[in-house]
Amino acid sequence: MRYLIVGCGRVGSALAEKLDEDGHEVIVIDENPTAFKRLRKEFRGHVVVGTGIDSEVLRRAGAEKADAFVAVTNGDNRNIMAALIARTEFHIQKIVARIYDPQRGQLYRDLGVETVCPTTVNAQLIRDRLVESSATSTPEIEFGVLTTLVAHVGTTQADKRVGEFEEFERIRIAALIRKGRLLVVSTDTILEKGDEVHAVVTSDAFSAFVQSFPDARKAQPVRS
Hints:
alpha/beta, Rossmann fold, Alpha-Beta Plaits, 6-stranded parallel sheet, 5-stranded antiparallel sheet, elongated
């Protein structure tokens, strides 16, 4: 199989070496050429200098023929944007992105991108070691009671910042679709009329979100 890995940090380089040892074809992308020094001399894969959110760089790395795609840079937004480009432009079926914000996990899974959150995984592992009798059990990752909602921006919400509609640990707007283009947003992003908002909302904040976006509905997961 051909694996395309964006990010040659500690995780990316270790994953690349393991996949290479298993006999797979591995291509690693990183915008910093010195990052490839982490790879051992025995590494038989290929390296490409560039950013994972550049379609031309991904194409040069062979994304059109990749069987799987992994984004493990240090930035959540870069990982998600790279993963979404891999899915929408190159139609790669198996995609995994590392994110540090667990509240975004459900949203991006609904968009067809599997996510791994080190914070959640590590907390789960520690909890299991503390409360379970068997240290060899496989943990299940729990993201809490979260719902991914979709809503449209009307005249009332337009020209306002995303942060005005968010609540800490209860409501997070992580992406929107504007004129057919998927954007990863920040709290300072200005909403425009007609935007399709994708938000992750806890169960106790559902009514609050609906007050701001009356047409909110549950998002439908993307199917391959």
